[in-house]
């Protein structure tokens, strides 16, 4: 009689090259293109929400994380569909079509000429764009999440039982393709977004930034279908997820029903489902539960890992990204992760692991995952140490009961200033270097007859420009920013001390027309050389050049002595309000190295472990469970961050590191008692058809149980008779 396991094996093996199935080439290329599509779209998604749909930061962040959560929850649906009805191949194809449609819809939603535009170039009917965006994101989440548990498992299916080494190498190559796609897309799509496009009005080119990922998804789908004839396609084994849930539910119910000590104990609590389900399914469920139990601590690793795109990027905004030959923006530091992965995966596979094996050390998959967790914890300790150094360089902004003031002297003579208890002398066209701290009110004395009672609300930082008023000096006060400029930009503003109205521009952006003795608003300018065009009403033009670092703020003072000539850039007085970042971004490289080393050891091993320990008909289910740990990890970040309410960021880093170390010890304890299994052997042992009398026994058991679900005494009697 044909064995069940034999029916699942392919009748012929795939064509091979150097011992590897040729079919995996199509799978790896498909994964590369799909990851390019996903990460490319996600790289510019928040900016699309904020600057195109005009959502505020909080709402944009909420929708962004909701989308990411959906992407890691829908793998469960994909696993059910693949293992129950369609099989992995058809599931990947059909959901890739859904995925592609979602990317196309997103590209269409970003076309600002799709509807009429307002004077500022923004779409007039934003509802249509929002609706299309939501439809596109839902389709993408369904597509990318649905195929996640299938692609890696489908790749593993291409190898025969004796190709364990090749399968292990495949998972490493598979992970490399993921990170190669991620690396290229996060570099390319922001460049595409920065281009200008449009028919009626020119705006940042989000349609192109979304359109190229859509095109790559089409390529992914076509490449995967082209390899169809070479694949080993394992047929679906029925609605396995429902069977598993029913089997577990029946075991719990039956154990509770027969909780009396009069009943003989069973070796495993799942054995209480023996009356209804065959031994093969019960054995498979036991295998799945063993692995899922090990998954319980894993979300903590992802809670740390996924903060690269949030906390670590925010940390980079307070650092200096000038590498001399290259200038790195804060959000570009994330590319260090895929770059290091591309370097570390081959090193681990070809050097580190073989070296450990030659030393005859038992570096099992679960031990590797434990080491990966420790690496991630060390990465956050490193991030905390870097944050401590950054905190020492950051400006101290006023508290809720405090005000801060800086004074600029535009008088032609030195000025003795008495502000509260502070006494100092300001030379002409100079400012005091640091802000002075005051309570909510004090008296400013600028000499005989020039006394000014001054009052501020709490948490206010201001600049007072002292200008001549007839014969007396007079302060004119302007409110300053009370936070570091975002994303490493520089906040620049102009004070016009000149005798006529000035119009100042930087590139296409303007500071507006500034009347005499008035201050412009802030304009955020990126790092590098900046040129400002200064014009008056008579058509005279002057250019002022300034070299900017990261995260600074300047008040550029145009003095009363300003003249329009070739030397005008030497006349303007730059007043530094917030110092540029001085801690270099290179200090983040150690923490990125540690977290990436942890990812390589943890994630690649976890994918391989999940596949090797999964029953033949439940591999996609375990892959979905693995991906679900990522979603739970992101939820943990929100919970811990909200519950901890720590004022210092370094303390939050250390808290996360401590939690992961604690979880790491728990996981190591659980792993110590885990026994590695060979699912194929276990399934072969239970695949023999049950004898007819065993079936009859179960039939009698179930029929009688249906009539004796009342008192415990009746159940005891029934068990005794059987």
From TrEMBL:
Keywords for this protein: Membrane, Peptide transport, Protein transport, Symport, Transmembrane, Transmembrane helix, Transport
Species assigned in the record: Eleginops maclovinus (Patagonian blennie)
Annotated Basic and acidic residues bias: 689-701
Annotated transmembrane regions: 12-29, 59-80, 92-111, 131-156, 168-188, 208-232, 287-305, 339-357, 369-390, 589-609, 621-641, 653-674
PANTHER family linked to this entry: OLIGOPEPTIDE TRANSPORTER-RELATED
Protein family: Belongs to the major facilitator superfamily. Proton-dependent oligopeptide transporter (POT/PTR) (TC 2.A.17) family.
Compartmental location: Membrane
SUPFAM superfamilies: MFS general substrate transporter (SSF103473)
UniProt-annotated stretches for the region Disordered: 689-722
GO molecular function: symporter activity
A cellular-component GO term for this protein: membrane
Main location: membrane
Bilayer topology term: Multi-pass membrane protein
Name of the protein in its database record: Solute carrier family 15 member 1
